[in-house]
Design a protein that fits this description.
This protein is mostly beta strands and 156 residues long. It has 3 helices and 9 strands; from the N terminus they run βββαββββββαα. It is globular and about 50 Å long.
Length: 156
Amino acid sequence: MFNVNPIGKITVDQDEILIIVESKYKQALKELTGFSHVNVIWWFDDFDNVEARSIVEVEAPYKKAPQKMGIFATRSPIRPNPVALSVVQIINVDEDRGIIRIPYIDANHGSPVIDLKPYTPSLDRVESPGVPDWCRHWPKSIEQSSDFDWESEFNF
């Protein structure tokens, strides 16, 4: 049996996006300042139900993808364990208040954060990753993704 406890939550409003760490974990932010990015492991809580957890194959969520795809070949929130991973840029870390300010994350307001790990190129960066033909035209980095027309890629 697994016991997963959130360490914080995502807060999204019109002015800013924050990762708010619970007070008992604030000290865990010590020395995160200096890293430009952080891996945020969070829970797709809006999709945590028996039906969503039982789906293992979906109709192509991407326009150029194969007709049917296994859920592990997608970044869908519908999965056996609704765990998400997002690499995000750190704008600043307020250790005293337990707040990390970020420019964007694909999580909803209130999504539970399970863990944070600093992004380190020596462990997280793959120099020449291979991808299927149907998504080879996607941007090669997070930085390039901000200017990409993602809406034209999805079937939803």
